[in-house]
Every structure is written in C-alpha cells, then in structure tokens.
Amino acid sequence: MKLEAIASSLKITRITSHVLQCDMPEELGYSQQYYSKRTAHIVEVETDQGITGWGECFGPGNVALANKAIVEKVIQPLVLGMDPMDRDVIWHRVYNLLRDHGQKGMPLQSLSGVDIALWDIAGKVTGQPIHKLIGGAHRSHVRSYGYGMMLKRESTADHVARFVDEAAAIRDMGFAATKMKIGLGAKDDVKLAEAVRRGVGEDFDFMADANHAYTTSDAFYVGRALDELGAFWFEEPIAPEDLDGYRELRAGLKVNISGGEAEFNRWGWRALLESRGLDIAQPEVCALGGITEYLRVLALCHAHFTPVFNHVWGSAIAVATNLHLLAAMPPMPGGLFPREPWLEFDTTENRFRDHLLAEPLDIQGQVKRNDGLIAVPTGPGLGVEPDRGFIEAYEIEG
After folding, report:
1. Could you tell me which residue ranges the Mandelate racemase/muconate lactonizing enzyme C-terminal domain spans (predicted)?
2. Which of 221, 232, 242, 248 is the one with CA 20 to 30 A from 140?
C-alpha cells in the first residue's frame, strides 16, 4: 500500500501505558526527596495498519501509575478511531475536554506521551525523522552536559569530598558542562558549589539545580556565591509559582536564572515569559503537552528572546525525542558563533535509558568517542524502537 493510502486510512485502535520500575543501585536524592526506585512511563499508540508509535510521560512512581489511568481510561476513549496524523486536532480535543479538570500537571503529562507517539507514527508513515517533520535540522550532532552530584544521607563534609571527584569525572567523560544538585541549606550549598568549581577547574561551565528549595532571600545568598564562582545558570531556585521572586532574582544576580520544567502549555509559558524572570527557559516536552505544544512554547520563548535548554528526564524515548527537538531548534538570536543548545544527560545509572532500545543510543559512548558530539537519529519518526522483551521484564501493574 502506498504511503498516501496508509496516511488517509489510518485509525487509532489502542493506547497502552507501560510503567516500568526497578530498584536503583543506591539511594539518591534532590532537595525534595530521596528515592531508591527508578520509573519510566512509556506510551504505545497502535493503528489499524500495524504502525505503532512510542511516547513518554513525565512523572515517577505513583504519579506514573496515576498518569497511566489518565492515558488509558480518559484519553484513549476520546481518540479511538481518530486519524493519528491529525495531531493538532487530537491535542485540542483532549485538552478542551480535560480543561475543566486541570490545565496543568498530570493531564498534560499524560497527553504529552500520547502526542509524542503520534509524531512517531507520522514520521513512520511519511518515512521522515521527526526533525524533518518539524522543519529540518539546524545541526546533525549536539553536545551534552552531564549532571550528577546528587544528594545522599551523608554529612556536608562527605558531600563536599564526593562532589569534587564527581564533577571532575563528568568533565573527563567529555561532556560540555556539568550540573549539580543543591538543597542541604543555603550555607552548606555554597560549600557544595565551591567543591564543584574546584573539581572542574576555572574554565569549565557548571550549573546548580535547587529544585525550588529556597525562599527568595536564601536564593539571593546562594546566587551571589554562584556569581563569584562563575556558574552558568541557577536552576529553579524558588517555587515555580513565585513569578515576582524570579524577576527579583534575575534583576539582582549575574548568574543566569533558569526554570520552566514545572510549567505547562502555551498559556502557562506565556505568563512565565512575560514576567521576565528567566534568562534561560527549560521546557519539558514529556510534561508540557508533547511535541505539538512544545513547538508553540519554543516559539514563545524565541519571541521573548529567551534561549532554550530543554529539560530532559526519563528513558531513551525521552532522550531520542529531545535529540530531534534540539536538531530542529533554530539558534537564538543567531550569528556566526551562537551558543548551541545542549542535551541534558543524567550520568547516574539508568537502565531504562541505556538498555530499553533494540539498538541503544549509547550517549556516553558517543560523547567519549566523538569529541563530545551525539548524533541525532535519522530513522523514521523517533528513529528508535523499544525492546518489547525488556518492557515485559520491568513492567509493573497499576
């Protein structure tokens, strides 16, 4: 059957959420909690022509199980029988019917995974990678920053010693920059930042992620130390709802203020960008509404002359999705030597990223072998396929 005939006759026949979970080698933490299990929420959209698309929903643990119910029990009945090529029609149908029950949060996370899978289907139907469907690749390879330096149940002194070594190790892996977690408390967090600067040396970018742990006052205390240390950005220093606080921090600190992973859809992002509180935007495609809505958010960010460094968390599906988005992202503001967007990469153990695919992306191997460069997938759709045996081995009931 010709592609045109397939495209005109496709119908969505089933949507399945696969929630994967495993024990981690060690407990890790950030400013809000410690965790010892890793979760990934993979969405599979099937069609009557045997073409299947894959997506991913942001959200760990019980959040993933709740989102599975939204995907299968709420969204699936709304879109069964629809043409998966009608991505924007499907997006607005689902959003409009769920609007009374939440314009942010878990309904949008659930819609995100379905939408990404529809883009995967569209690429497979047309024989094009997702970055081609968006409009083409500005770059065939991207660089990445490695984050680590997670919090543990140990003393500040032990954190400091470990952060020096971990920061140096990530630099030596070939990453373009590194990012640390903070959240022990303002004074102790300054010690952690000083340790990372010692670890990477003076001429290597590092960033600090607070996961909205501070009041504005404490954020200024830590931010001034980050100014002196030459940090590249200060991520989510305060609660995402505190737009006035973000604006005050951006006006009063030299370090770039970044955030946005907890914001959803074009309307939430419009308010965030108009508040003028961000130097760097960090949209999360697996949460804000999928690729369809991400492209609108990206346009808003560029309309406000705000550079974008995507937030990336999750499995190999999320990583592959973001590689396409980074390839298709125009430089902002442009010029001969623009700062190129980086892929965010978690350097801690993640089997759902490293072993999920039939043909692994091998990000760390590419970084080491290719002078820090990672190839953007070129196959149809996402250009990757999960190993169904792997999914069956780690899938949990919910």
Report:
1. 160-256
2. 232
Contact criterion met (CB below 8 Å) for 362 and 320 = no
**∠ Cα 397 346 138 (to 5°):** 110
pLDDT given at position 333: 84
For residue 96, count other CB atoms closer than 10 A to its CB.
10
Task: Report the mean per-residue pLDDT for the chain.
Answer: 96
d(CA 249, CA 234): 10
Residue 373 near residue 366, CB atoms below 8 Å: yes
Q: What's the CA gap between 156 and 66, in Å, rounded?
A: 36
Residue 209 to residues 105, 263, 323: CA-CA distances in angstroms? Answer: 21, 16, 22
- Which of left, alpha, beta for 73 (phi over 0: left; psi -120 to 50: alpha)? alpha
Catalytic residues: 311
Rounded CA separation 48/15 (Å): 12
CA–CA gap between residue 272 and residue 278 (Å, rounded): 8
Residue 143, classed as helix, strand or coil, is strand
Mean pLDDT of 245-265: 98
8 A C-beta contact, residue 294 and residue 285: yes
Q: What is the pLDDT of residues 134-160, one digit of tens each?
A: 999 999 999 999 999 999 999 999 999
Instruction: Give the E-state strand segments of 226-364 in sequence order.
Output: 233-235, 256-259, 280-281, 342-346
Q: What is the pLDDT of residue 166?
A: 98
Residue 333: asked if its preceding bond is cis (omega within 30°), the reply is yes
Q: Taking phi first (over 0 means left), then psi (-120 to 50 degrees means alpha), and beta for anything else, what does residue 371 get?
A: left
6 falls in which pLDDT band (50, 70, 90)? Answer: low
Assign 3-state DSSP to the chain and report helix, strand, coil percentages, each to 5: 45, 20, 35
What's the rounded mean pLDDT across residues 357-363?
A: 97
Q: Is 181 exposed, middle or buried (0-12, 13-18, 19+ CB in 10 A)?
A: buried
Helical (H) or strand (E) element with 369 = helix 363-369
**In a 3-state reduction of DSSP, which class is residue 357?**
strand
